[in-house]
Design goal:
The protein is mainly α and about 100 residues long. It has 2 helices and no strands. It starts with 7 loop residues before the first helix and ends with a helix.
């Protein structure tokens, strides 16, 4: 998010897109579980390794966590910008009324 301040809208769009993808993947997995499909079998090799299905799920969860954090950061930035704009408008209106 190095250009978050230059283009906060694009950062927000990226975060929303990533969160949407992660949520879609999670919803798909929940539907599969509700349909009776079993969880992928864990086939760790005893040395701390995991199988590809678990690695993929963990990666999706991490992506969702990161996306959620980015979305929260973008929302906070938007909130601050809206607050500053509202303060400017109030100031302009007060100056006109005076």
């Amino acid at each position: 998010m190095e250009n978050a301040h230059a283009h906060p809208g694009s950062s927000l769009n990226i975060a929303v897109d990533r969160l949407d993808r992660a949520l879609e993947a999670l919803e798909s997995r929940v539907r599969a579980l509700q349909a009776g499909e079993p969880l992928p079998e864990y086939t760790g090799d005893g040395t701390g390794g995991t199988n590809a299905a678990y690695d993929r799920v963990l990666a999706e969860l991490e992506e969702a966590r990161i996306s959620n954090a980015q979305l929260a950061q973008a929302a906070n930035a938007a909130h601050e910008a809206l607050g500053a704009a509202a303060a400017n408008i109030r100031q302009l209106l007060a100056n006109e009324a005076a």
